[in-house]
Design brief:
This protein is an alpha+beta fold. It has eight helices and eight strands.
Amino acid sequence: MKDFIAELEAARRSVGTGTLPAGEARVLTIERTYPADVEDVWDAVTDPERIPRWFLPVTGDFRVGGTYQVEGNAGGEIRACDAPTLLRLTWVMGPPTPEDSSVVELRLAPAPDGGTTLTLEHTAVVPPEMWDVYGPGAVGVGWDGALLGLALHLDGAGPLDPEEVLASPELRVFNTASSEEWGAALAAADGLGADEVAARVAATTAFYVPADDASEPS
């Protein structure tokens, strides 16, 4: 079994700003290297037969201009697909917006010392009231979990059982540490005070690591 925290520490995170047709946006970036060749990583992140083995089932019209839907999660439109190096798509929870408000770009490149460097960039227009409470961890922790699942899959693990994963004590520790890592990335980017960062980390951690089922936020 892989060390979940070691996998978390293998990634580099940053927070920035950008623009989308819907307005000013926040940009979250995660970069890490997997000990697999580019073609294998590309197949793992684009083959609808493999995606559920490390993430969630996905359906749709898998071509540029086609739409997709991740089961119980986001959906959107595939905007670019340049195998095996670039995938860009809109990433929307709920009904699509008239203008792009959330875009995910995935880039793959051979790593200098072998393997594949994966860069995931999520650019989204985030309501101030959400950003001011949670910061980047609101979605960043979820992306960390997805890239952990990909690491397990590329390492030869069998298909993940979502219920078992969510109940795992190791995942609770992982999500707590991920929330703290995104707090550190926020502090480095925005220069917020320690108390402001700590409040966002606490809110994110409480969401992803509730004290018990009854306390899980809606």
